[in-house]
Automatic annotation (TrEMBL):
The keyword Phosphoprotein does not apply. It comes from the Bacteria. InterPro entries: Mem_transp_PIN-like, Na+/solute_symporter_sf. The chain crosses the membrane at residues 6-26, 38-56, 62-83, 95-118, 124-145, 157-180, 192-213, 225-248, 254-275, 282-305. Its main location: membrane. It is found in: Cell membrane. Gene3D superfamilies: 1.20.1530.20. It comes from Methylobacterium organophilum. This is Transporter.
Amino acid sequence: MTALALIVPIFGLVLIGWAAALTGILSDKVSDGLSEYVFALAVPALIVGTLTKPGLEGEIAWSFWFSYFGGVAVAWGLASLIARRRHGIDGRGATIHGFAASQSNTIFIGVPTILQAYGEAGAFPLFMLLAVHLPLMMGAATFLIEAEGGRSYAARLKGLGAVLFRNPIFLALATGLALRASGIGLGGVPKALVDALGGTASTCALIALGAGLKRYRVVHDLPGALTVATLKLVVHPLAVWLLAFHVFTMPPAYAGVATLFATMPVGINAYLLAARYRTEQGLVAASVLLSTLLAAGTVLVWLTVLGHG
């Protein structure tokens, strides 16, 4: 499978969703409903089904975590530093910039792309990274933003716990890991239902992402959005690639998954966080759109670097 053959169907579905929304074939209500279905049911089912699949084996390699989150630290730090040098951006805004430049779109693009590229060999490291990625990234961003408001550590922990334990992805990861640790597998009707839901995740996620892009505008702070997109699509994966392939030692599939995970565009969670705290929404929305459009080319380059060309 060449990189082009892998990437065209994925971003082709994003383009179809975007065109359908622009022409009115899909309304905003349908787009929102499809996104909610993917986030609340389809992807959680895919996660549980994959983690409980017989024969899914892997090791927890600390070098894997250090490589990925080392790259996160580089992109986040640079974005925050650049933001603080811009007029009118406070500490909360700088945190949002850093979060956007290092928060990958894992659910809508990352999962379909990585599973296509690495198959079973990449499933275990992918979902292990997902299990840590969500709470660690959201936790760090929430703590930093709340610190600007002077809230106590107890209040920040309580708020973070409420966010995580209402998140279907986090709950699915916890359920799948618990079933896996206990040796309980799915069979019969439960397996059929989980597989049926999980089988819709990839296509629905990509269509929902494309349809959702219609509401974003790239003209808002184009230089700032281009800076965030460049840090996300170039600096973040480059730092992870250097650490995974040239500093630490790990199985090749793990290094590839970490790098490809980092190549994903700015995640929707960055916009949700910006909207929640009412800061830098326009910049982050523009970054989501711009990075998603540019990712069709940059992901293709990274797939070729990783040996899928």
